[in-house]
Specification:
With 129 residues, the chain is an all-beta fold. The protein is 0% helix and 47% strand. It contains no helices and eleven strands. Strands 2, 4, 5, 6, 9, 10 and 11 form a seven-stranded mixed β-sheet that branches. It has a four-stranded antiparallel β-sheet with strand order 1-3-8-7, with no helix packed on it.
Length: 129
């Protein structure tokens, strides 16, 4: 049974930082495609960042501010978020899929949450101005 559990959410003022973690079990973490998505009220779930053993990719809106990383030994995915903005406020989800291999693991400009099989329960980020 695959399980993804996010932690690290909370409230922060604009310009601040937070780090999200996602612990994964039951999934071949070292070779799959891992991702962070977010969903604000009334909006579609959007990809924020992806990572596999070859590369990491980012949505344009977070490039230069967010960093995705993973620790294969700990089966843990991270998202370091710096220079947070009010528009970053959303529920953040980690996701995993084993079929998005190689170059197919990347953030699309269109909504693509349907491509991921496994999801965490989400953690809320609120950024105040």
């Amino acid at each position: 049974q695959v399980r993804l559990v996010e932690s690290g959410g909370g409230s922060v003022q604009a310009g601040g930082s937070l780090r999200l973690s996602c612990t994964v079990s039951g999934f071949t973490f070292s070779s799959g495609c891992m991702a962070w998505f977010r969903q604000a009220p009334g909006k579609e779930r959007e990809g924020v960042a992806t990572i596999n053993n070859e590369r990491s990719t980012y949505a344009d809106s977070v490039k230069g501010r967010f960093t995705i990383s993973k620790d294969n030994a700990k089966n843990t995915l991270y998202l370091q978020m710096n220079i947070l903005k009010p528009e970053d406020s959303a529920m953040y989800y980690c996701a995993a899929d084993s079929s998005l291999i190689g170059a197919y693991c990347y953030v699309r400009t269109r909504p693509h949450s349907y491509q991921f099989t496994y999801w965490g329960q989400g953690t809320q980020i609120t950024v105040s101005s």
